[in-house]
């Protein structure tokens, strides 16, 4: 019996072991090992070892090597279901079962450009995720009743008109669910605006309830009231939000939700931290169950190019 070469690839390092994945036989893993012998008469006499693990896919006589051009841009946990939403630079979104380290759903090309961010809906009993991309699109992915691991490109039951966001959608913060399972989201964008949206069941478009400029691209949004939002004297729920606004620094926001739908939402910027001299991409606040207001919280923020980390508080003096 003769043999026939079907496909081949030259690796960067010498392969030393390989094995197919038992649960998903289209994938196999190759381990590499390399020993660089030191030069006793040179600058370094020590030997150096290096290696890697590479995941390949082989299906339908096609050998697919991993692409270093595709980057994972965000990870978002769904704690009570051990699920993770992953967004990628090629526009894909994947839902991963973290208990079994298995991709449960693949949402290919959910965005035509980079998929920057994902967020989980707070709807109980459903597996619903949102994603935002550099194509200015906000998408809603309902995977609750899907059996197939790969979902077609037109899978989303909600696709937002690109005119709502003037640039890429970079932050998504689900706030709450109403009695009819409609949802309220806060979004951030490169266009420097924070927006509050109302997502109604069965409708393809969101209703814009509020938008306000932050003077910098809104890269991240963090909810600061971790339990039920406090109620103001006017009967409005007050949501505390920390916004990382790139070159504009941090903004501490109070978003007021009216008790009735026919009333207007409002937003107040209660604090600005502008000591960073570079892009502020990441910020958070220390959880404090005793905190009665945002003035009681301790904040930590970072800036990218100057590699700075700052600890700060709001001062009402």
Low-confidence stretches: none
Number of strand segments: 23
The number of helices is 0
Main pleated-sheet profile: 4 strands, antiparallel
Structural class call reads: mainly beta
Mean of all residue-level pLDDT scores: 84
Query: Strand share of the residues?
Result: over 45%
* Bulk shape: globular
How does this structure look, described?
- The chain is mainly beta.
- Helices cover 0% and strands 46% of the residues.
- It contains no helices and 23 strands.
- It has strands at 15-20, 27-36, 48-59, 62-64, 72-78, 83-88, 93-97, 102-107, 115-120, 128-133, 138-142, 158-159, 169-177, 183-189, 193-199, 207-213, 220-223, 237-244, 250-257, 266-273, 283-285, 298-303, 308-313.
- The strands form 6 sheets. It has a 4-stranded antiparallel β-sheet, with no helix packed on it. A 4-stranded antiparallel β-sheet has the order 5-6-7-8, with no helix packed on it. A 4-stranded antiparallel β-sheet has the order 9-10-11-12, with no helix packed on it.
- Strand 3 (48-59) and strand 4 form a beta hairpin.
- It is globular and about 85 Å long.
- The mean pLDDT is 84.
